[in-house]
TrEMBL record:
Organism: Achromobacter pestifer
Annotated keywords: Cell inner membrane, Cell membrane, Membrane, Protein transport, Signal, Transmembrane, Transmembrane helix, Transport
Quaternary structure, from the entry: The accessory proteins ExbB and ExbD seem to form a complex with TonB.
Name of protein: Biopolymer transport protein ExbB
Role: Involved in the TonB-dependent energy-dependent transport of various receptor-bound substrates. Protects ExbD from proteolytic degradation and functionally stabilizes TonB.
Length: 331
């Protein structure tokens, strides 16, 4: 047992004894390498600091360049202020002449629409009353019944007005004769003149207001055009006195001035359309009234309702009635 322990001790000593001199020999080499490593580390740190400083300088340079860039670029001119434009602005900036023309066009428009509404209502009512009277007239059994109808309800339309005056003229001439110059001639002459006078009066009533419509329709565009010319003139004067000339300064005032032309057309178009419509309706209505006058004249001169052509009725009137009626009776 003691021999075994002694052998193990010897083996351990033999194993460890060579490592001790090697470690002792490596210690001075490690000590010599430590300053070199420390110097390398300090060199790397200095390089890192220099790199960080360079990066900071680059960042500062970029910030300076970014700050100087807006001032280096050309500055675009600020857009010119758009002036106020519109119809009310044009009226507000107009002088006495421009406002006067505007007021004239407004008055023309008011008068036009007043006449249109009044004449439409009057024509509708007149045609309705005329249709009622004609229905009663042609369904009456005698002139006395027609006269009683007129006395009861009055002469409210051109047809009843014509019949009333014609029957009154015939009765008056038969009773009193030709006592005045206006009653000179035969009974048929007096009745003819009376009926023609009534037709002329009714024609004048129907045409009442049409002259105004025609005048408005023909003059309103020129009034608006004059307002446009006046506005353009003042706009060009203002542009000439201004410092700079741009499309906004030209287009705005000129466009506002053109409003007067549009306003003149807006006033004239309804007037012209209404005038043409009323003239045509009056022509148709008066032709019916004239045809009724022919029938009424033949009825008064013969004493009975007859059916005559327009040509025969005109011949009857030219021949003073009685002779033509007798001639037709002989036929």
């Amino acid at each position: 047992m003691s021999n075994a322990l002694h052998s193990a001790t010897l083996v351990a000593q033999a194993t460890t004894s060579p490592a001790v001199p090697a470690a002792a020999a490596a210690a001075p080499a490690a000590a010599a390498a430590a300053p070199a490593a420390q110097q390398a580390a300090s060199t790397v740190g200095a390089a890192a600091q220099q790199a960080a400083g360079a990066v900071q300088q680059s960042a500062d340079a970029l910030q300076g360049a970014a700050a100087a860039l807006p001032s280096a670029l050309p500055v675009a001119p600020a857009p010119a202020a758009v002036p106020d434009m519109g119809f009310m602005h044009f009226i507000a900036q107009s002088d006495f002449v421009g406002k006067s023309l505007f007021i004239i066009l407004i008055l023309m428009s008011l008068v036009t629409w007043y006449l249109i509404l009044v004449k439409v209502a009057s024509n509708v009512s007149m045609r309705k009353r005329s249709a009622d009277f004609l229905n009663k007239f042609w369904n009456a059994s005698s002139l006395e019944q027609v006269e009683n109808e007129i006395v009861t309800h009055g002469a409210r339309d051109p047809f009843s007005h014509l019949a009333s005056h014609a029957m009154h003229a015939q009765a008056h001439h038969n009773k009193f004769g030709a006592t005045k110059l206006e009653e000179a001639g035969s009974n048929t002459d007096f009745v003819t003149r009376t009926m023609r006078k009534v037709i002329d009066e009714e024609t004048a009533k129907l045409e009442n207001g049409l002259t105004v419509l025609a005048s408005v329709g023909s003059t309103a565009p020129f009034v608006g055009l004059f307002g446009t010319v006046w506005g353009v003139y003042h706009a060009l004067v203002g542009i000439g006195l201004s410092d700079g000339v741009t499309i906004n300064r030209i287009a705005g005032p000129v466009g506002e001035a053109l409003i007067m032309t549009g306003l003149g057309l807006a006033v004239a178009i309804p007037a012209v359309l209404a005038y043409n419509t009323f003239v045509r309706n009056n022509r148709v209505y008066l032709s019916r009234l004239d045809a009724f006058a022919h029938d009424l004249f033949a009825f008064l001169t013969t004493g009975q309702q007859v059916a005559l052509s327009d040509g025969k009725v005109r011949a009857l009137r030219r021949q003073n009635g009685h002779g033509a009626a007798a001639q037709r009776g002989s036929e």
